[in-house]
């Protein structure tokens, strides 16, 4: 006899397969953010009106001089700046996307109270009321619980299987429903975890490039003018570090917030499965 305690690989993989629309968003959003970062750097920060000595030739990277205002100085941080701006936009994009997804997955009301309500209904053998509570919850825990309850209700009237086999069928249904919900919760967090590490390194890389450029000018020119150029160049280069560290900090904080929320939902899903199997084993021996 086949092992009913585990979902088949085919069934679980088909249910848990990500939607094509979600994959397309994850593929296009980072590229769009990098392009937008360049547009902000080139046409807003690098607008000729923001400099006392603009480069009339323009091009991909105009050599404007004399930035007006502290924010505009970020332009002279170099070509790494638009990449860092793009990374910040990627973080903000996926923070918003994950906030919407996890809010939806959390459902309505407190998960602990919802599980207690289900336990109360099952103790009184009121499966239909438990199903109605799942419809009101509308979250990942409610979805898993509803799948398990549907099989639970079916097993009550089943006369062909013994109690242990019925419990295994309920457990299988819960595991398949869980395999559908968990990938949705964890999807796209890789962008936050990656940028949390990479943004700081990119910022340092941009700073090092700026320092190399500044010290090269010091060696070529010499004197007080070269010292002024060096001081200005270091200040501009440090914008890369500040932007990189700031982006990394936002990514780390939000990644931890999301993983904590996902852990809470996952715990609720695990408790749901335990509640259903234990309730059936106790009430329908």
Helix content: over 70%
How much β-strand is present in the residues?
A: under 5%
Q: Which parts are unreliable, with pLDDT below 50 for 5 consecutive residues or more? A: 1-18
Number of helices: 9
Largest sheet: 2 strands, antiparallel
Write down the secondary-structure element order. HHEEHHHHHHH
Radius of gyration: 28 Å
What is the SS-derived class?
Answer: mainly alpha
How would you describe this protein?
The structure is a single chain. By secondary structure, this protein is mainly alpha-helical. The chain has one domain (19-283). Helices cover 77% and strands 2% of the residues. The chain is built from nine helices and two strands, in the order ααββααααααα. The chain has helices at 9-16, 20-45, 80-106, 111-123, 127-137, 140-156, 163-186, 189-221, 223-283, and strands at 51-53, 65-67. A two-stranded antiparallel sheet has the order 1-2. Helix 3 (80-106) runs antiparallel to helix 8, helix 4 packs antiparallel against helix 5 (127-137) and helix 4 packs parallel to helix 9 (223-283). The protein starts with 8 loop residues before the first helix and ends with a helix. Mean pLDDT is 85; it is low at 1-18.
